[in-house]
Amino acid sequence: MDPRFAALLPFLSDERVSRFNQVLESRTRHICLVLENVYQSRNASAVMRTCDGVGIQDVHLIEDINPWVFNRQVSKGTPSWLTLHRYREASNPTEACIEQLQSSGYAIAVTSPHADGLEVHELPIDKPIALVMGTEFEGVSDTFLAAANHHVYIPMTGFAESLNISVAAGIIMQDLARRSRTLPLRSWALSEVEKDVLRAEWAMKTVRKSDVILKQLKICLNTGNSLP
What we know:
With 228 residues, the chain is α/β, with parallel strands linked by helices. The protein is built from nine helices and seven strands. Helix 3 (41-54) links the parallel strand 1 (31-36) and strand 2 (58-62). It starts with a helix and ends in a 5-residue tail after the last helix. 32% of the residues are buried. The model has no long low-confidence stretch (mean pLDDT 88).
């Protein structure tokens, strides 16, 4: 058990701990999402809410043109339960993100009406995959297009040529998440170590003044005294 979670456990209800464990059983890092300079923060927040809903834990944000601003009304606080990877300190955030994804073993799938693209249900999910969504106006950057292992699109049969980014992301992520859970040996699931870390991080975001409690615990451990 993560020592941070052990320290905060007395401050958590049984219902909250049970909920943590229930959600962790459905969480995955087999799929992650990349949002590259999404123009409207509320769209990015809506996509994050969908990530939480379908069990995708990691969201990578490229913000060198359009910064993401937290929107509680749209996201309902769900970014607090996700792992956000932000590249604000990188000289080239897009290249830094690509390097991180590739070094972590992800195949990169960009949303694009590419001539040789795959429909959503055709996208292979036997290996970890990062889904990249670009700006509402221009799509993903040329840099991500060049790095892509796959191009994916949603077939359109009406007069509209495209969907709102949050709708498109929801359709694709739901399909990927559903199919990934059919992989053998629960290879899509989090490891026990990953669960422990997230359980502790969620506890820290749930318990009021958790940083103070953990600081007091550290002092007590160093002095041999009990918590007050």
